[in-house]
């Protein structure tokens, strides 16, 4: 830990992956990177390297099966849910969900607009049918989430959609939304498998891989069987969850690399970390450390999100002046901390603390933040 008056710890290039605070694609466990490197030349249990193996091979089938089994185990997922590995990122789910559940419906879908990504989901849903935005945080600059009394759900909704963790603004729901009358759909792209989750209140959950799960290129969809039956019959096969479920996620050429790494990460979570309860303890500790650095900075660092709605995954904050932010980012980068610039739509600083970011890395970042504040505290008006 470095909280003394000496400069920030200088981090060597070989440790760069360790100090990756990027919003995504982000940090992956060191052991997974090493195993992936070996598999590129020769995959375990196969004679070929990972990138040359057929998606129709029994070997790849076993990889998809293990990835699914790991996710089922981590979530205690009941048998009436399918686990699908799809392409098109979180963004395609913004369309596939309403194509499946809203196309041709007179009943509106309920959406909650809590930030950049839920707003994008709403734009796509409106192409497919009526949307009722239950709550919109844009007038308040997406700094907080709705309180329970502000959400008047109606039982006639086709479904309810929300984003559990707004990656850009650093807002995270710490409770379940909606009620039993309406199908719940949730975009968990940036907090999936970061904490324990009871999947049973959800009709559909989706999460792209490039935060907590692996590289870009694959999106996990968990969908309850009865939702599959509601899909219109004339959807293009690639946009039809039923077709992907029927083919066990290998309808067309699947992203072998991305699914392989996702399998390794879920194996790591299951066997090395020891499950989601333990992951949650680690993640809470990391977030508490950075929020404490913000809260004890006498207003030098300013958190974006209302304290009760703070994300454990994305810590978003600003400094007293844009010039200080630029200096912070430049010095952080040269001290070896990567990916700290805020999202292009918001600016400021964002430290993403996904599962693979170690407490040690967060500790070092806190040390840097304190060092920087002490040096620049009297320059608030630069
Ligand atoms: N939802 C959330 C919560 C996200 O953070 C993102 C992207 N970071 C998306 C959806 C869009 O995902 P993709 O870029 O994979 O389409």
Provide structural commentary:
- The protein has 382 residues and is an alpha/beta fold.
- It folds into two domains: 117 residues, Alpha-Beta Complex (Aspartate Aminotransferase, domain 1), CATH 3.90.1150; 241 residues, Aspartate Aminotransferase, domain 2.
- Helix content is 35%, strand content 13%.
- It has ten helices and twelve strands.
- Strand 5 and strand 6 form a beta hairpin.
- It is globular, with a radius of gyration of 21 Å.
- It starts with 29 loop residues before the first helix and ends in a 6-residue tail after the last helix.
- The structure holds 4'-deoxy-4'-aminopyridoxal-5'-phosphate.
- 4'-deoxy-4'-aminopyridoxal-5'-phosphate binds next to helix 3.
Q: Give the C-level CATH assignment of the largest domain.
A: Alpha Beta
Q: Biggest sheet, strands in spatial order?
A: 1-9-8-7-4-2-3
Number of separate domains: 2
Q: What is the third-level CATH name, the topology of the largest domain?
A: Aspartate Aminotransferase, domain 2
User: What are the distinct ligands in this entry?
Assistant: 4'-deoxy-4'-aminopyridoxal-5'-phosphate
Instruction: Classify the secondary structure makeup into a structural class.
Output: alpha/beta
C-alpha end-to-end distance? 29 Å
Q: Give the DSSP E fraction (strand runs of 2 or more residues).
A: 5-15%
Low-confidence stretches: 1-6
Kindly state the mean pLDDT as a whole number?
A: 94
Q: Which geometry do the CA atoms define? A: globular
**SSE pattern:** HHEHEHEEEEEEEHHHHEEHEH
For the largest beta-sheet, the strand count, sense and barrel status come to: 7 strands, mixed
Overall strand count: 12
CATH superfamily of the largest domain: Type I PLP-dependent aspartate aminotransferase-like (Major domain)
How many DSSP H or I helices? 10
By CATH, the architecture of the largest domain is named 3-Layer(aba) Sandwich
